[in-house]
Amino acid sequence: MKPSKRRTLGLIKQVVGLVAPPDPITVTEWAEENRVLSAEDSAEKGPWRTDRVPYMRTIMDATTDPNIDTIVMMAGSQLGKTAFQLNVIGYYTGHDPSPIMMVQPDLGVAKDFSNDRLGPLYRDSPQLAKLFGKSKSRNSRDTIYYKSFKGGRINIAGSNAPASLASKPIRILLADEIDRFAISAGNEGSPLDLAIKRTTTFYNRRMVFVSTPTIKGKSEIEKLYEDSTQEKLHFMCPSCDHLQTLQWNRIKYTYDEETSQCTEVTHACEECGAMHEEHEWKRDYANRTKWIASKKHATTRGFHLSALAATINYTWKMAVKEWIAANKKGKQAIKVFINTVLAELWEEEGQKLEHEILMNRREMYQARVPEGVRYITAAVDTQDTRFEIDVVGWGKGYSSWRIQRHVIVGDLNQQQPWQELDEFLSRTWKDAAGRTFRPVRTLIDSGGHFTLKVYKFCKPRQARNIYALKGEEKGDGQETPLLNGISTNNVPKATVVRVGVSEGKSIIFSSLSLEPGKPGSCRFPLPHPDNPDPFVYDEEYFQQLTAEQLVTRYKEGKPYMAWVQTRARNEALDLAVYNRAAIEMINPNFDLPLPEPGGVATGAKRPKRSKKKNVASSI
Q: Which stretches make up the Phage terminase large subunit GpA ATPase domain (predicted)?
């Protein structure tokens, strides 16, 4: 054959290779042939095996169904949601190269995903590794948030960063934990809508939306799942073969309080009532389970999956332990369990309390520190003309007892009120057995007009566990954790505890709604004859404690929940949030025994001064 003819045939083959569609294989087939799990990515590194997570086969393969353009996954934790998305990315990188976008809740999470999950995927899967790293000139534009490969590229974006969403057209869109997305990407509207608009150029687009659910009526994944096939995984009863979903209300367990261990857990069949253990329900998993849809949909498949269906890394006994722990901690922890384990929506009750109901619950304590208290904390609200202080005791399940309310009046530009504050925070309180308590943590509000003074006051007192606090609230429905980290970015280099006040208010209102005596409930004292302090828990206090209400607001047409003041003063509510943050800082063990009568309780001894510059490393 003449050289010119050979060159022509070679050119024809190259052209055919460019325009011909890829071999028709599924994501599952691609993953089993090409995906290699990394040490950073999995407890079991090595070749991907779908039989380890058999419930994922149907979900993964839906992403290559030519009749489907949208896949919705509303699922709990410990189910391999990220591994599923990585397989989709790998498929559309190595087998059917396409422009891809992966959207995370924020740029920080996006960076971690790129470094900890995407990087190892591309590095350790041989087919993908060939596409990266060898040609520096081709990859010179590659960054943490952008990587190019032959035939495509991937952008890793944050829902809170409009610039990261403003890429060129994309064919493959993946959005992870969409219930944690920003309400608006800057001033440009819904980040999900912005990302979806990037896909409209492609007739063969694929969109994958994944999240654990949150609050009913406010959850993004709920809306998408409702507009889908609504498929749930059904298990055959080991006794009668009846197909059914696994339900928490049919779980029966035996729990040993002394050892904190679940000794037995079974699930009852809804048809025949037979009780079977987890391994019996999950035997021959691939052949005895079935995804069943409750709706028809032309283009969108939706999947709901509880962590009870997990095959690795999570068991029913672990779920029982989490359930027991959540019930001890209170309503907020139960909400987390419902969302992240059962993958169910939380139905929020109206968050409004009447102050008279709480005031009528006041009771006479037998001592300044009532029975049940294991630790005490203090919180200080800084006003222009006074310090408002609340001292709170804490016991099992984050049950709380108000111990002392105090106000220091004075010009905060003068030294006198600061001296009085220092003296008050040096006090101790005793229970009926004579045990001495001192606050294990004290948080002082640094907002307002005296920020620098608060920093200077707290810095030399950090060895006494006294810290400055900065309340944070985004105000657009984005959740800020109660404890949102610490900062020392100030002139005195004081440790400042960052507190998510909206999350804190939700926790406080959940606690206030509980009947006294239940785990997580709040208790209040009647005036005690031994308490000469005139600032008792009076009607004004309870009006302040209930001075806000959770309401629905809208931004860019999207609903979100926000706290709004219904009364002028809310210092008592702020102090309640600060005290809750203070106790959570120490990760308390409420099962620790108290010292003998007359002894010194945990935190009552003054700590020795640390030689380290930052004594708040344990926060």
A: 42-291
Topology (CATH) of 355-585: Nucleotidyltransferase; domain 5 (3.30.420)
Look up the CATH superfamily of 26-230+294-305: P-loop containing nucleotide triphosphate hydrolases (3.40.50.300)
Q: In b/e form, how buried is each residue of 583-619, taking b as 16+ CB within 10 angstroms?
A: bbbbebebeeeeeeeeeebbbbeeeeeeeeeebbeeb
Q: What is the dihedral of CA 495, 497, 498, 504, to 10 degrees?
A: -170
With beta carbons less than 8 A apart as the criterion, state whether 102 and 154 touch.
yes
Where are any strands of DSSP class E within 446-535?
466-472, 483-487, 496-500, 522-523
Angle CA(278)–CA(284)–CA(286) in degrees, nearest 5?
110
Helix (H, G, I), strand (E, B) or coil at 347: coil
Closest alpha carbon to 159 in 195, 124, 199: 195
Using DSSP bridges, classify how beta strands 152-158 and 146-149 pair: parallel, antiparallel or unpaired: antiparallel
pLDDT in tens, 343-382: 999 886 555 678 888 988 999 888 899 999 999 999 999 9
Report the phi/psi class of residue 47: left, alpha or beta, with left for phi > 0 and alpha for psi in -120 to 50.
beta
Neighbouring C-beta atoms of residue 564, cutoff 10 Å:
10
Alpha carbon separation from 407 to 110, 382, 392, 437 (Å, rounded): 46, 10, 15, 20
pTM of the model: 0.67
The answer on pLDDT for 619 being more than 50 is no
